[in-house]
Amino acid sequence: MTMIRDNLQQVTARIVTACTAAGREPASVRLLAVSKIFPPAAVRDAHAAGQRAFGENYIQEGVSKIEALADLRADLEWHCIGPLQSNKTRLVAEHFDWVHSIDRLKIAQRLSEQRSADLPPLQVCLQVNVDGGANKSGASPDEALALAQAVAALPRLRLRGLMAIPEPADGFDAQRALFMRAAAIFDRIKATGIALDTLSLGMSADMEAAIAAGSTMVRVGTAIFGKR
Ligand SMILES: *Cc1c(COP(=O)(O)O)cnc(C)c1O
Q1: Number of domains making up the chain
Q2: d(CA 120, CA 118)
Q3: Per-residue confidence in pLDDT tens, the chain, 228 aa
Q4: What is the C-alpha radius of gyration for the chain, rounded to an integer number of angstroms?
Q5: Which domain holds residue 167?
Q6: Could you tell me which of 224, 226, 166 has the C-alpha nearest to residue 50?
């Protein structure tokens, strides 16, 4: 409990320092606590320390955790950040608040069809692949605009922005340069008149470089919950 609370404080301090270094308002970056692998009790501790937004990679595990924490449901925001196959979209549409990992239209269409009218629209980000080879998930930069236009038109989704997971690079500047590719695609889509407000970039090891590149949401697991 104390460890998670202390870690949250340290991560928040890192965010503030990185924002100051980048000439940004600390409030412009949200912290998503990535709780994958950790039990519901860890989420409960983080919630008690004031954390509200949680990210899960594995759909089934995430849904079990959401159900185990049903008493806190109204106070928590659940983000699906992992690879999403067609056969899992219904679970996601029924249980999560956000999805960061949409990389093709078919997945988005299914989520929109399966999102109940009783729930708010599902908040979504498109995952873009900014470094080509190594990390194959995500739409290519060339496909991103057309995908954004199509997803923005779906009735039960609300397109919020982009997510990227570049491969680890050698040093701050190289890492920031990769994140800047995502920021450039984000700006290009916004310039066409699609209102985006979320750039989901940065994890425990590289959140400073992501914030320097314009991240508005860092997804942090290890630095909050410990090693997996
Ligand atoms: C696991 C994971 C994170 C958190 O990574 P850490 O290095 O533990 O901070 C962030 N985003 C995604 C998509 C992940 O799978």
Answers
A1: 1
A2: 7
A3: 589 999 999 999 999 999 999 999 999 999 999 999 999 999 999 999 999 999 999 999 999 999 999 999 999 999 999 999 999 999 999 999 999 999 999 999 999 999 999 999 999 999 999 988 655 789 999 999 999 999 999 999 999 999 999 999 999 999 999 999 999 999 999 999 999 999 999 999 999 999 999 999 999 999 999 999
A4: 17
A5: 2-225
A6: 224
- Domain containing residue 181: CATH number: 3.20.20.10
* pTM summary value: 0.97
Q: Give residue 54 CA to ligand 1 midpoint distance, Å.
A: 11
Decide: helix, strand or coil at residue 128: strand
The alpha carbon of 221 and the centre of ligand 1 are apart by a number of angstroms equal to 6
Question: 181: left (phi > 0), else alpha (psi -120 to 50), else beta?
Answer: alpha
58, 130, 219, best to mutate for ligand 1 pocket (most atoms within 8 Å of CB): 219
Output the residue whose Cα is nearest ligand 1's atom 6: 221
Please compute, for residue 155, the number of CA atoms within 13 A of its CA located in the half-sphere on the CB side.
6
Decide whether any atom of ligand 1 lies within 6 Å of the 220 Cβ: yes
